[in-house]
Amino acid sequence: MTATLLKQASPPPVGMADRRRRARRRGRIIAIAFVFPALLLLGALVVYPVLFSVGRSFFDASGTRFVGGDNYSAMFRDPATIKAIRNTTIWVVVAPALLTALGLILAVLVEKVRWATAFKLLLFMPMAVSFLAAGIIFRLAYDEDPDKGVLNAAVVSVHDAFKGTSSYPTARARDGQGLTKGADGSYRTTAAASPGHAVDLGLVGVLADDLPGDARPAYPAAVRKAAPDELRGVVYLDFTRGGGGEQGKVDRQESGLPGIEVEAVRDGKTVASATTAADGSFRFGGLDPGSYALTLPASNFAPPYDGISWLGPALVTPAIIGAYLWIWTGFAMVLIGAGLASLPRDALEAARMDGANEWQVFRRITVPLLGPVLTVVFVTLVINVMKVFDLVYIIAPGPVQEDATVLATQMWLVSFGGGNDQGLGSALGVLLLLLVIPAMVFNVRRFRGSQR
């Protein structure tokens, strides 16, 4: 009887299903406890600002008057916003495609390099540089002054190596000294000259320290007589260091100007040309009798080539995209290289054994197998370029800032950079969010598909 009562009073045995249910409940509580701080930060830093911006976009600049969709309609009527949308489209179309292509090519080539790890590290190092520092670096690299901007220094060096440059860009003739300046920058003698005579052509505006090292005094050449069948003369610097001398006359201390091209012109046609020697002398022999005009072509006085205006209105956006490529190429290469390392090598080797060359293996096997990885890299870069701000704001100079603006910089300029219209700025932020969401959703689905 006692045993029976004790048996009835004892709790029923806990089943296996109950234990599993309790364990799952405990696991959920623990998971929520660990995830809650992250959810709290996500709500405070992402969800709340997004909801606040959406609500703020329906109010005016002061935030007190409800204007409905006026900010959205004004946004598409603003020429600066239209230009920002156009530039953002250029970024989305050009930058991710170039980066993905460069990353793919480099990832394939690096596999065949002996020091592959060091090469990858070298290309990935720009990722460690902040956009602020990278923007400053490229702002200096794109400087129009060849003495500061490394790109223009290289361009000017190549240009001068093939086309040369004038030795006397600052030279000019004195007024009333026998030379008149043409509309194209050339100089022409006012008096006619004929064979058997010598002509002295004086120029000023050249610093004595800027004279070529082989320049010699012009006086000996100036006193030399011309033969009956030749027309000769001297081009000299009509300036005596320390003062003194006579204008329009070759003094003993005055230097010749070597390397100047002189042309003999008759009836509007150039019949002969010569280049001045170290003492500035020139001569034309075998001329027919008659009168000639002497011309110093404008090429003698052409200003030096200053390179390319990288940060001008026409090239500022491609220039900034170039800086972006420098930073992110290593990222694309490393991700694609990781996908390349996981490819089945037997498929590649089988194709080579069947007679396929390297280009066919790359185009028909490597690229199709890397399709999922290339898509993830491309979409990730699309999301990134839609938000680009630092490089555009830092590299583009103030006068061309509007020509380089994208949605992110336009949103900041409208809200805080002088516009002080946070209603319109919030509308721009909502537009940017709507453009980014499809790419984010696509990327998340790709990640989930690859996990399955």
Which key phrases capture this entry?
MetI-like fold; 452 residues; three-stranded mixed β-sheet; 8 strands; elongated; 3 domains; single chain; five-stranded antiparallel β-sheet; 9% strand; alpha+beta
What is the structure about, briefly put?
This protein has 16 helices and 8 strands. With 452 residues, the chain is an alpha+beta fold.
Distance from N terminus to C terminus (CA atoms, Å) equals: 61 Å
User: Can you list the strand order of the major beta sheet?
Assistant: 1-2-8-5-6
Rg for CA atoms = 38 Å
Instruction: Characterize the overall form.
Output: elongated
Total helices: the number is 16
- Major sheet size, sense and barrel closure: 5 strands, antiparallel
CATH topology of the largest domain: MetI-like fold
Based on DSSP secondary structure assignment, what is the total number of beta strands? Answer: 8
CATH superfamily of the largest domain: MetI-like
**Number of domains in the coordinates?**
3
Mean pLDDT: 85
Which CATH architecture of the largest domain is right?
Orthogonal Bundle
Low-confidence stretches: none
Quickly give the structural class. alpha+beta
User: Helix content range of the residues, please?
Assistant: 40-55%
Instruction: Estimate the strand proportion.
Output: 5-15%
Word description of this protein:
52% of the residues lie in helices and 9% in strands. The chain has helices at 2-9, 16-56, 70-75, 79-110, 116-124, 131-141, 150-163, 219-222, 316-341, 345-353, 358-369, 371-386, 390-395, 401-404, 407-415, 422-451; strands at 179-181, 187-189, 198-203, 230-237, 261-266, 269-275, 281-285, 293-296. Strand 1 and strand 2 form a beta hairpin. The relative contact order is 0.13.
